[in-house]
Amino acid sequence: MIDRLPQVINKTAIYYKILPELTECYKYLQKGQQTAVSLVETESIYSNAIPLFMTMLNLLKSKSGCPVYLELAYNPKLLAFLDSIGFFSVLKRYNIAEYEEGYLGGFNNYCDYERLQRNVTKIFVNEPYIFFEEWGEAKKKRTRDTLSGNVKSMLRNTPFFRSETTPIRGDQLWENTLTAATELIVNAQIHSHSLSYAYMQMGIPLSPELNGYILTIADAGRGFYESIGERIKKGGSSFRRQREEFYIYAECLGINVKKEINFLSIMEALYYSQMQARDMDLYRLKNLLAVSKATLRIHQKNTEVVFTYAACQKCENRDILNCVQCVWARRNTKNSPLKKYPISMAGVHVEVEFVQEKKHV
Fold this sequence. Notes:
Number of strands: 11
Radius of gyration: 20 Å
Strand order of the largest sheet: 7-8-9-11-10
Distance between the termini: 51 Å
Largest sheet: 5 strands, antiparallel
Helix content: 40-55%
Order of helices and strands: EEHEEHEHHEHEHHHEEHHHHEHHE
Number of helices: 14
Structural class: alpha/beta
Shape: globular
Strand content: 15-25%
């Protein structure tokens, strides 16, 4: 059975349509039974959905134990874009999906394929370091320093960071964004226990007046609670006390810890990031909102927390415990920062969206 994907694949389609349908379709999937999805009717895939879509294919492959069959039709615009960002080469390299390679090619008859390749950023794929936490401190530091240097060098040379039109203006903002993105990618690599994907795109039309610049990272791993728990276990009593104090504080706010564990795990990741000098990725990204008019979305399983410039512009370097109280207090408002989806997806998804006014000639 082939599940036909919708005309437009975005985050909403993935969480409200695609995942529920695939979950029902493959509820009784057996090992060795190939899954199949179809892009025949799909005309576009949003940039912020690309790592999620690849994570979804990775999860399907993991469940069945064999590559997903990806049905294609000759849609040059979609296929040229996916091919230019390395989508198909990643699927092939990691044996995630099978597809008819004859559909790839001949794109110059329909678009300026060489120009497209120059102006897009390739998907970053990061292999996990599953035994990282078992290593000694010296080896962990060497490995992390090497990974960070390599990732930062690659990011620095992407159109997202080197373009003259980037909205990430100012030396300090540019460097902080680059460092935070580097730390997010490296942390996914050493803590998620799964392949992780990062993607960036510039100049996405958001309105007649605004363009969007999106950085998005996704993995199919353990999630925040388990990965932080492993680090706490290695870190000793002071780390355990931090976790205990965090969840006691949540209970004092009237939060049902068991019911809201995904929301609290996201906030604990921010809290842990704030408390640790080295792992400041999420906390650093959140602080960027106060100076860059960006939006930060952090998703785990069925829960997403959204931090916007409008809500956070006066909160630079604010204690994350105060943020827990703020988000929880606004959970039932019209523009609630706390979102729940009808189905859960393994791993973590982080998205940062910058906006910039369009230049009219």
